[in-house]
Design goal:
The protein has 5 domains: 170 residues, Beta-Lactamase; 117 residues, Glucose Oxidase, domain 1; 105 residues, PtsI, HPr-binding domain (Enzyme I, Chain A, domain 2, Orthogonal Bundle); 162 residues, Alpha-Beta Barrel (TIM Barrel); 116 residues, Alpha-Beta Barrel (TIM Barrel). The longest helix is centred in the first third of the chain and has 24 residues. The protein contains 27 helices and 22 strands. It has an 8-stranded mixed sheet. Strands 21-20-19-18-17-16-15-22 form an 8-stranded parallel sheet. The protein is elongated and about 90 Å long. The chain is 44% helix and 16% strand. It is α/β, with parallel strands linked by helices and 754 residues long. Bound molecules: phosphoenolpyruvate (PEP) and magnesium ion. The site of magnesium ion has 5 residues, from helix 22.
C-alpha cells in the first residue's frame, strides 16, 4: 500500500469530482470506496454507517462480498468496527484476527484479510460511521495512511448531513425516523418548566463544504481566522471576563499557546494544500490530534484534549464567520439554551421573550447566573454529568425544573405526562396566588415577614404578585452588569426612583454595588486574581474607588427624596469599613442639604453580614447600624471555605447543619439583644425545609426570590412554631451534621407543608 501523500492533490481532486457529481449518494459512496482501495492499494475498502442509533450497517464495499452490503450489521461496540464507533478513535492492526474484539461474519468473506485500518466517520464530533481498509498480508499502516483515511472519512460525513444516504435507506426499508430519547439528570438552579427547542449557546458548526482547490483563498481565510481568534482570546483575557465563560485563566493561557503553535498551523496549512477548505482542514487536524491524544497514557495531555477541541471549534466558528454566542442571532420563540457555563451578563444578553430555559453542564446553585435566572423566572438546570454539549440545535426538549430532568426528543407518552405535571403545577401556583392576601403567620400566631430579593424592575411585579411586604435586597449591580458603560448619575437616580415608585410605599432596601467575584462589569478593569471571591470586590472596590460609591449614593439620595432611603453595604469585613462607607453616605447627604436639594425623609443604614469575621464584631457593629441583613450565600461560602461557584463543592457542606445554624443563632441573639432588625436574604431561605429551620432558630424576616414566597408562606401557615423550636433545639445539640432528614420527618409528622 503506497502512502497517498505522494499524490494527495490528485486523489482529493478525484474525490471532489465524485462528491460534487449529481449521482445518487450510494453511487457516490461506491465510487469513493473504489477510489480509496485503488489509491491506497488495499484489497478492501468498506464503509459502515450507523442506523437507528446503535447499529452499524455495511453500506458499500470494494473487496468484500457484494451480497454483504445492507446485510452485515454490528452493534456499536461489537467487533472491531463497533469498537471504533464506540470509542471514536482509529484502529491500526497488523493482525486483526488476533484482537480479542474480532468477530467473524461469514457473509463478508473477510477471513483472508489480516491487516486492518479503521477510522471513525465523524459529524460535528459524533461518530456516524466507520471507514475501513484491509489487506491480506500482515502489515502496519503508516501514520500518513491513517491521516489520509481520516480525511476521506471526514468528507464522507457530508453524505450523512444531506440525509441522502442513511435516511434514504431508512425510507426504502420503511424504518420509522423516530429519534432515540435521551434523558439527562441535573440539579435545579431555578424552578419551572419549559417545552422548546435546543439552541446551543456556543454552537458547533456543521461543515458543509470540505473540498476546495482555491488554496490561496483558503490560506488567506485561515490567516484571518487565526487573527480574529487571537483577538477574541485577548479580549476575553483582558476584559477579565473569564468567569463568565466558566473558564480559568490557566486554560486560556493554554489556549493561547495552542493558538500560536506553529506546528498546529503548519499542519492545517498542509491540509489546505492537499485540497481541503480552511474549516475542513482544522477539523481534519483536530480529528488526528484527538486520535493521537486518546492513545496517550499521559493524563495531562488527555485532559488538554477537550481544550484543544474547544479551541478548534472556536477557530472553525471564526472561519465560518459565526464567532459569537447564540444570543447574537435570531432565536426561535421557545429557545432552551444549552451551555457549558455562562455569566449573568451573558444570560441577560438573551431575548427574554424567547428564552424559555437554560441548561448548564456546570454551574452552581448559588452562582449569580442562577440568581439572575431565578429573578427572571427562567427555569435553569445545571451540573449535568453527561456531555450535553454534543446536542444539536433544533432538537425538541422538555425541561422539568422541579426534578432536574431533561428529555430530548421525548416520545408522546413522556410529553403527555410532562404536560400533566405542568397542569398540576399551574394549580399549585394558583393556590399560592390565592394566598396572596393572607397573613404570613404560623399556626400558633407568630408573624413572619416575607420580602423579595430583586435587581430588575420585574422583581417589583413579583413582589406585588406574591403579596410580599417589600424588597429586602435590591441588587443594584444587575443594572451595571447589563450596561456597557458606567451608568451616569441621572439615569441611575431615575431607575431607583422607578423602583421606589413601583413598590407603592412598600420598603425597598438597596444594596450598593456588589461587583467582583463572578459579577463583572465591562467598564471596570480588574487585575487577574487567584481567588476572585476573596479578592477585590464589593465594598472593597467601593472604598478604593470612592467616586463610584459616591455617585451611586447621590443617585439613591435623589431617588428617595421625600421617602425613607434604606441602604446597605455588601461584604463588610470590619467595623472600620462600615464606618467609612457610612461616612461617605453622610457626606453625600450633607452635600445635598447644602445645595438645597430634596433629601429623604429618613435614612436607614445597614450592612450585609457575609463575612464570618463580622460575626465576632457584632458588639461594636450593632450600635452603629440600623439593621443587619445576612447574605447566607457568601457567609456560607466563607464559613465552609467552599467556593459557591464550584460545582464540585456544591453538595459537600450543608448550610442546614448544626455548625452554621449555631452561628446564625448567635447572630440572632446579638441582634435581639441590641434590638436591631435582622433579615436573611441568601438562597437558603427560599427552600421550605431550610426556611422552617431558620424560623425555628429565631428569624422573623426572610428575603426570598419572588417564586419562593408562595411555597414558604404555605409552609409557615401550616407550622406550629413552638413545636419546631423545641425540635430544632434538640437537633442542634447533636454532633451529627445531617439534620435534613429529621426536619423532613418532623414536617411530615406535623403535617407542615414543605
Ligand atoms: C448573599 O451572599 O447571600 C447575597 C444575598 O448576596 P449575593 O448572592 O448577591 O452575593
Ligand atoms: Mg453576597
Amino acid at each position: 500500500m503506497t502512502p497517498i501523500k505522494n499524490a494527495p492533490r490528485q486523489m482529493m481532486r478525484q474525490l471532489h469530482e465524485i462528491m460534487a457529481s449529481a449521482d445518487e449518494a450510494e453511487i457516490r459512496l461506491n465510487k469513493v470506496v473504489h477510489l480509496v482501495a485503488t489509491n491506497m492499494v488495499a484489497e478492501v475498502c468498506s464503509a459502515y454507517f450507523i442506523r437507528g442509533g446503535d447499529t452499524l450497517e455495511l453500506f458499500a464495499t470494494e473487496g468484500l462480498k457484494a451480497e454483504a452490503v445492507h446485510q452485515t450489521r454490528l452493534r456499536v461496540g461489537e467487533g472491531l468496527v463497533g469498537l471504533v464507533a464506540a470509542t471514536g478513535s482509529s484502529l491500526n492492526l497488523s493482525n486483526a484476527q488476533d484482537h480479542p474484539k474480532f468477530v467473524y461474519r461469514p457473509e463478508t468473506g473477510e477471513e483472508i484479510y489480516k491487516s486492518m485500518l479503521a477510522v471513525p466517520i465523524l459529524r460535528i464530533g459524533k461518530v456516524v460511521g466507520v471507514l475501513v481498509v484491509q489487506n491480506q498480508v500482515s502489515r502496519h499502516y503508516s501514520e500518513e495512511e491513517e491521516e489520509a483515511l481520516q480525511t476521506i472519512a471526514m468528507v464522507l460525513a457530508e453524505l450523512v448531513v444531506s440525509g441522502d444516504l442513511v435516511k434514504a435507506q431508512d425510507k426504502k426499508d420503511g424504518v420509522e425516523d423516530r429519534a432515540t430519547v435521551t434523558r439527562y439528570q441535573g440539579t435545579v438552579f431555578a424552578e419551572g418548566f419549559a417545552e422548546g427547542v435546543v439552541v446551543m449557546h456556543e454552537p458547533k458548526l456543521e461543515i458543509t463544504q470540505h473540498l476546495s482547490e482555491d488554496y490561496d483563498l483558503q490560506l488567506k481565510k485561515l490567516e484571518e481566522g487565526f487573527n480574529s481568534l487571537l483577538e477574541q482570546l485577548d479580549e476575553i483575557m483582558s476584559a477579565e471576563d473569564i468567569l463568565h465563560h466558566g473558564e480559568h485563566r490557566e486554560i486560556l493561557d493554554v489556549y493561547k499557546l495552542f493558538a500560536m503553535d506553529k506546528g498546529w498551523r503548519r499542519k492545517i496549512e498542509d491540509a489546505i494544500e492537499s485540497g481541503l477548505t480552511a474549516e475542513a482542514a482544522v477539523e481534519k487536524i483536530q480529528v488526528e490530534n484527538r486520535s493521537k491524544m486518546m492513545k496517550t497514557e499521559d493524563p495531562y495531555l488527555r485532559d488538554r484534549l477537550s481544550d484543544l477541541d474547544d479551541l478548534a471549534n472556536r477557530l472553525i466558528r471564526h472561519l465560518m464567520g459565526k464567532a459569537g454566542t447564540a444570543a447574537d442571532k435570531a432565536l426561535p420563540k421557545n429557545a432552551v439554551v444549552i451551555a457549558n457555563n455562562m455569566g449573568p451578563a451573558e444570560l441577560l444578553d438573551y431575548d427574554r421573550d424567547r428564552l424559555k430555559a437554560v441548561i448548564l453542564k456546570e454551574g452552581a446553585q448559588t452562582s449569580h447566573v442562577a440568581i439572575v435566572a431565578r429573578a427572571l423566572g427562567i427555569p435553569m438546570i445545571g451540573q449535568i454529568n453527561e456531555n450535553i454539549l454534543d446536542l444539536e440545535d433544533g432538537a425538541q426538549i422538555i425541561v422539568h425544573g422541579l426534578d432536574g430532568e431533561i428529555y430530548i426528543d421525548p416520545p408522546p407518552e413522556i410529553l403527555e405526562s410532562y404536560r400533566g405535571t405542568i397542569a398540576a403545577r399551574a394549580k399549585l401556583l394558583a393556590r399560592y396566588d390565592g394566598m396572596r392576601e393572607k397573613p404570613v403567620v404560623t399556626k400558633d400566631g407568630v408573624d413572619i415577614e416575607l420580602v423579595v430579593n430583586g435587581g430588575l424592575s420585574m422583581d417589583i411585579d413579583g413582589m406585588h404578585r406574591t403579596g410580599a411586604a417589600g424588597v429586602g435586597l435590591f441588587r443594584t449591580e444587575f443594572q451595571f452588569m447589563i450596561s456597557k458603560t458606567l451608568p451616569r448619575i441621572r439615569p441611575q437616580a431615575e431607575f431607583y426612583k422607578s423602583i421606589i415608585d413601583a413598590a407603592e410605599g412598600k420598603p425597598v432596601t438597596f444594596r450598593t454595588l456588589d461587583i467582583g467575584g463572578d459579577k463583572e462589569v465591562s467598564f471596570l478593569k480588574r487585575d487577574n486574581e487567584e481567588n476572585p471571591a476573596l479578592g477585590w470586590r464589593a465594598i472593597r472596590i467601593a472604598l478604593d474607588r470612592p467616586a463610584l460609591l459616591r455617585y451611586q449614593l447621590r443617585a439613591l439620595i435623589t431617588a428617595a427624596a421625600g421617602t425613607t432611603l434604606r441602604v446597605m453595604f455588601p461584604m463588610i469585613t470590619t467595623v472600620a469599613e462600615f464606618k467609612l462607607a457610612k461616612s461617605i453616605l453622610e457626606k453625600e447627604l450633607s452635600r445635598h442639604r447644602k445645595n438645597n436639594r430634596p433629601i429623604p425623609e429618613d435614612v436607614k443604614v445597614g450592612t450585609m453580614l457575609e463575612v464570618p469575621s463580622l460575626v465576632w464584631q457584632l458588639d461594636d457593629l450593632l450600635p452603629l447600624v440600623d439593621f443587619i441583613s445576612i447574605g447566607s450565600n457568601d457567609l456560607m461560602q466563607f464559613f465552609y471555605a467552599s467556593d459557591r461557584e464550584n460545582p464540585k463543592l456544591s453538595n459537600r457542606y450543608d448550610p442546614l447543619s448544626p455548625p452554621s445554624l449555631k452561628m446564625l443563632k448567635h447572630i440572632i441573639d446579638k441582634c435581639n439583644a441590641f434590638n436591631k432588625p435582622l433579615t436573611l436574604c441568601g438562597e437558603i431561605g427560599g427552600k421550605t425545609v431550610s426556611a422552617l429551620a431558620l424560623i425555628a432558630i429565631g428569624f422573623r424576616r426572610l428575603s426570598l426570590a419572588p417564586a419562593a414566597i408562595g411555597p414558604v408562606k404555605m409552609m409557615i401557615r401550616s407550622l406550629n412554631l413552638s413545636q419546631a423550636e423545641e425540635f430544632i433545639e434538640e437537633l442542634l445539640s447533636r454532633s451529627d451534621p445531617n439534620i435534613r432528614a429529621e426536619l423532613r420527618a418532623f414536617a411530615k409528622d406535623q403535617k407542615v407543608k414543605i
